[in-house]
What does this fold into?
Amino acid sequence: MSTLLDVEDLRVSFPTRTGVIEAVRGVSFTLGRERLGIVGESGSGKSQTGRAIMGLTAEHGVIEAKRLDFNGTDILKASKAERRALRGKRIAMILQDPKYSLNPVMTIGRQIVETLRTHEPVGKAEAKRRALDMLAAVQIRDPERVFGLYPHEVSGGMGQRAMIAMMLIAGPELLIADEPTSALDVTVQLDVLAILNRLVVERGMGLIFISHDLRLVSSFCDRVIVMYAGRIVEELPAAKLSEAQHPYTRGLLNCMPEIGADRHPLPVLDRKPEWRL
Amino acid sequence: MTPALAIDGLGVEYDDFVALDDVSLTVAPGESFGLVGESGSGKSTLLRAVAGLAPVSAGTITVDGNVLGSKRDKAFYRKVQMVFQDPYGSLHPRQTVDRLLLEPLAIHGFDDAEERIVRALDEVGLGASFRFRYSHQLSGGQRQRLAIARALILEPSILLLDEPTSALDASVQAEVLNLLEQLRATRNLTFVMVSHDLAVVTHMCDRLMVMQSGRAVEQLASTDLAARKVTQDYTRGLLTASEGFRRDPA
Ligand SMILES: Nc1ncnc2c1ncn2[C@@H]1O[C@H](COP(=O)(O)OP(=O)(O)O)[C@@H](O)[C@H]1O
Ligand SMILES: Nc1ncnc2c1ncn2[C@@H]1O[C@H](COP(=O)(O)OP(=O)(O)O)[C@@H](O)[C@H]1O
Ligand SMILES: [Mg+2]
Ligand SMILES: [Mg+2]
It folds into this structure.
């Protein structure tokens, strides 16, 4: 499988008045045209890993890496203009809450059209047609109607699908999805996953799927990276999650209630200082 | 035995929108009852109606044999307390833990506040060192423990729990669920618990009601749900979806 993304020893830190916060502390992985899951508890550095790749790290953040290579382009050495061209066109990121990603004062259709036209020289009519196709592709039943609606006029699930349509309109080769379904109902969640799945299978897109839900990730992804305190503690094939070795991974799996299991009290995580190393 | 909570033919309407339509349920003292369903199905509205926070248009709500009127009095809140999903929204961030726990005690005229605050913190596993911290200095799990301490400090017999662990990491969720179960056992509390997570509800509750569009789809025992003894397609769909993604849907 050809490598799309090569990350070696990625570090993200934030200098603050009281010291340096090391959000990501030496993360390495490669990604092909596959579904890679990144899981871990909140604060473990999942989003900051995705943001660094996408070029969305907060201004005062410091990014270092031995290698951060996207399809032959050194992301760290790229100029601002080159990075902007990458972002949206070839690499896209879906954020957790569509409310913060969609512009509240612009209709959904216009946002998608404008996103497309900043990346491709297409005419208005052509852009609109492609936007409608994309809305249909993310399983929005009445694309013409939704095209003209404002973000607050649609449900959470619909907003998230519109957001995905906007991120996918330029046909990215790599999609970073940061908890794209955490705010959705289980049934809607599965619809969104089916859309992402089809893009990987049919278009050969690479997908980084960030989630705190270990079980969901293992049912959806090919490989899973488990993060703790800014580091990868374990990497394994998703299908082999039940054979995880690291006590953190096993603890995360065990502490979730399960339908039909009768475990009272639930096992809790007993965090060991050596996990941080 | 008199039910701890009985709801009969409950309707709630916001202007013209029917949020709850003819919903009935009965919860025995000491029982733990769950509400599941997709977002917007009316789960929170049901809890809010019991707490007197939703516009009831039909039906009756009975607590310990007493039919509730349209206003809730102080005695009601000594018996029934509510814990919300968002530990950030429900506690004032600029108040200390001490102040937040003192407030309900002052409203209800307790004179042994000191003793109760110390005991409440201990019970939810926060310890005395947290007492003078501000609530915004607490982690999500700690804030939810505080919300539980605040709800329990008046020694209610019924706790209404609205997605109490949905905003928490799985490991923290397990700790809070264990705490709730232990408190229910030691205090013989009655729970009505809302969650969108079937696994959480079946873990915590003896029986549950499945809701959709403001209506009850079915009521069943958690053990029946686990054994797939369900009568409605909607429930079956929820159950299948909660098993995760399937590469090749049949
Ligand atoms: N702008 C920032 N300034 C300082 N610290 C930050 C900033 N953004 C994130 N962090 C810290 O980086 C760590 C990792 O955060 P994040 O990647 O968002 O975690 P996750 O997505 O796994 O929940 C956390 O400790 C967080 O507090
Ligand atoms: N204050 C309100 N005004 C108008 N509609 C409301 C209000 N509160 C809730 N609703 C509506 O009632 C329905 C049920 O909401 P809710 O009980 O919060 O659902 P759930 O908790 O199951 O997600 C939703 O369609 C919601 O939009
Ligand atoms: Mg995150
Ligand atoms: Mg709700």
Observations:
- The two ends of chain A are 32 Å apart (CA to CA).
- Residues 186-203 of chain A form the longest helix (18 residues).
